[in-house]
Structures are given as structure tokens and as C-alpha cells.
Amino acid sequence: xxxxxxxxxxxxxxxxxxxxxxxxxxxxxxxxxxxxxxxxxxxxxxxxxxxxxxxxxxxxxxxxxxxxxxxxxxxxxxxxxxxxxxxxxxxxxxxxxxxxxxxxxxxxxxxxxxxxxxxxxxxxxxxxxxxxxxxxxxxxxxxxxxxxxxxxxxxxxxxxxxxxxxxxxxxxxxxxxxxxxxxxxxxxxxxxxxxxxxxxxxxxxxxxxxxxxxxxxxxxxxxxxxxxxxxxxxxxxxxxxxxxxxxxxxxxxxxxxxxxxxxxxxxxxxxxxxxxxxxxxxxxxxxxxxxxxxxxxxxxxxxxxxxxxxxxxxxxxxxxxxxxxxxxxxxxxxxxxxx
Length: 339
Description:
The chain has helices spanning 30-38, 44-64, 82-87, 123-132, 144-149, 159-179, 199-210, 251-256, 279-291, 313-327; strands spanning 7-8, 89-92, 96-98, 105-107, 110-116, 140-142, 152-153, 184-188, 216-221, 240-244, 263-269, 300-304. By secondary structure, the protein is an alpha/beta fold. The strands form 3 sheets. The protein has a 7-stranded parallel sheet.
């Protein structure tokens, strides 16, 4: 349990290549290791050792930067949807397509049959993370609405049935994590702020996945404004809601208006630029949240605006250190603390 008013948290993939001298070389270069695995130069067991060392490095860096709750940096994920499309029935991995307005691509799945939960795509990584860290952890899954939106539907014909089955799949993931001992799980819902016309069905799908599932859920959206969906987002039954406040600065004010019982996550630090934010500017943002009543919210996470994976590792670390040092200025003050 933290006594700080704010808590730092990562919300997405971390860079897969350590570029500092201390850990340079093949043994900490996951992409190089994967190429060597594909060529038969290393065994699957040796590749898993590289994965484990890489995740341990990501965990150690978060702790060094003052993060009390840690993630595995989604080191094994190529993108937010492929792990789930590969693990469950109904999907066929497709061709490359641009990932939002970022200069990267993901393999867009095609839904070729009924979407069905088979076995958790993330449970093994959750158990590994628990073994590598004695800090509280935050596993993550793709939210049901965005899972459907990431795909090309060639089976359902109607969105409602697709959303219902994606919600059941995600609920299976959450139940598996709850049974394994998770206390919090992050759901990525980047499409929630991009397609406001779907706000109603998106919220229904999210609630079908998370309601009464036995684990606290944190829904994070990015790359868009919450303004067009502001009338519906408070209907989400999650214990915390977060948003990218860099791409859409108005999200900083919108999140403050939510119910007092809801935890918040403010994506204040730009995850898509190496330009460093001023410590004074970040401090002012936190001062504003403190004045707005952050001490009464169940949790107030300060996060990057999205995944840091597009930054060189040294820049990602600098952003994490900036967040960690800023939140450390506020202690103790929390009235209700559940981190």
C-alpha cells in the first residue's frame, strides 16, 4: 500500500531493446533473439531465458523509477490484439495494416468463425511477472470493443453478436486472472474515443466483460478525446478509468468530473515524443489534481499517454523517472488508498 497521493503506472508496451551499455548485446535484445530462434540458432528454452531476463529488466527499471505497481511491459506482445487472436477460436491472423496514426503496423485478424475463449493468452505471463517481482502487478488485456474493432468481420454480419462474443472472451481472460490471484487488470480500449457513435454498444460490451468478474478493472483509452462519449463513460462499471491527456488535452478536465468513487489515470507524459516535459509543468498538473480532490479518489495514477515502445529505451526511462520523481513530491495525503 502506498501512502502517496498519486501513483505512477505504465499503460502499454515497453521498448524491446535495451540500449544502455550495462545491458547491451544479444542477451537483452529480444528481437535479435527471436530472429535467432527462427533460424534455429537458439532453442525455445534459450529464447524463454531472454524473455525472462528482458521482463526482469523492465520490472527493475520501474522499481528504480519509483513505480510501486509494475507491469511486464507487454514484452511478449507484438501489438494489442495478436496475442488474443492467436490464442482463441474464430480468428485468422491477417496482413499488415497501420496502427492508428502511428508509423507502425499490426497484423489485422480476420474473424472467420464464432469467437470462443480457449485458454487465457496472458495467464502464463502474469504468473511469470508475479514470480519476478515482489511488488503488486498490473496485467492487461485487450478490451472487448477494441478487440472487435481491430478485426475484419467475415462471420457475424452484425456488430452486436460480435461484441457479445468478444465480451465473453475477455470475461474468460479476466476470470482466469482473478482465479490466479490478480487484484487489478487493465483493459485497453483505444477505439472507445475514436468511434463515439458506438459509445452505447461499447460500454455495454465492456460491462458485460467486467461486471462481477472478481477482479478490479481499469479501462484505459488513448489517441482520442473523451468529449464525444462523456455522457456514457461514467456508465462503465470499472473501478478506474484513464485516458491519453496529450493527444486530447481536454481529457485532463473530463476525467476530473467523474464520480468520486471512481479511480483515475491521467496520461500526462507524451509517449510519442522524445521531447521531455518540464518537471515544473508536470508538478503544476499534479497540483491541479490535488486541488480537484484527488485525495478522495480511490486511486490516481499518473501515466504516459500511451505505450512507450516507440521511444529509444533511454528516453522511455527518462519519461518514467520524470513521473516517478513528480509523484514522490506528494506524500502522505491519501484518504482512501487501494493501490
